[in-house]
Write a structure and sequence with these properties.
By secondary structure, the protein is of the alpha+beta class. The protein folds into two domains: about 130 residues, MvaI/BcnI restriction endonuclease, catalytic domain (PvuII Endonuclease, Chain A, 3-Layer(aba) Sandwich), CATH 3.40.210; about 45 residues, no CATH class. It has seven helices and ten strands. The strands form three sheets. Strands 2, 4, 6, 7 and 10 form a five-stranded mixed sheet that branches. A hairpin with a 3-residue loop joins strand 8 and strand 9. The longest helix is centred in the first third of the chain and has 17 residues. The protein is elongated and about 65 Å long.
């Protein structure tokens, strides 16, 4: 009988998968330069790795994330430009986090001409707990404002300066929440767009040094 997948088992599996994958030469990836195709290959291979060992509910586009029962989503990104997109739900995500944890694989792809194979070296496998998935500059500045006895008008002015995508009612509600409950510092860089654009440079730098950001590889 397969064991039920837990967050801890997912982290261990990601670590062993990343080490094993970095040694694997794959003929079907030779000459492939499309990052989306490489990411899809890695995600599917990791899911196959998990399914042979554990039982769990798979996510789908309706549920939005890869492991809805564990509240974790997988992100695969190239080390050349470590970033990806994710669905925009509300501006609150930039301040209080995405609402789920991230398992981030950061890879570099090489082609080996003599064997006509592609190899994906996973340089980093990082687990970001959901409380650390907000935007670094936004949360750092809001915490400083709260420490300096900011009032509601100060917070609203900050939202306006940052072009936070909120209407007036949502902005006022968020400002009140920030004053009562200043956010944890997040470590993503989140750009405003119809889909959030997540950048992982700071997560890579801080993994293993900050609580809530675990370096698995």
């Amino acid at each position: 009988m397969s064991k039920p997948l837990t967050v801890e088992l997912l982290q261990k599996a990601a670590s062993s998968f990343a080490k094993k994958q970095s040694k694997h030469a794959e003929p079907s990836l030779f000459g492939v330069t499309d990052g989306k195709a490489v990411g899809t290959y890695l995600e599917h291979k990791f899911q196959t790795h998990l399914q042979s060992r554990y039982t769990y509910g798979r996510g789908n586009s309706a549920k939005g994330i890869d492991f809805p029962e564990l509240c974790v989503d997988i992100k695969v990104t190239s080390i050349r430009q470590p970033q990806s997109s994710c669905p925009f739900k509300s501006a609150r995500q930039k301040i209080y986090g995405l609402g789920y944890a991230l398992l981030v694989f950061v890879y570099e792809k090489h082609d080996e001409e003599n064997t006509r194979t592609g190899r994906i070296d996973i340089h980093h496998a990082i687990f970001v707990r959901k409380e650390r998935t907000a935007d670094f500059q936004t949360t750092s500045c809001l915490r400083r404002l709260a420490e300096n006895n900011a009032n509601r008008d100060d917070i609203l002015a900050f939202f306006q300066e940052r072009l936070l995508p909120v209407d007036e009612v949502e902005a006022e509600s968020l400002a009140d929440e920030v004053l009562k409950n200043p956010p944890e510092v997040g470590y993503l860089t989140i750009s405003n767009a119809l889909q959030w654009r997540l950048q992982y440079g700071r997560v890579i730098e801080q993994a293993g040094k900050i609580g809530g950001i675990l370096r698995l590889v």
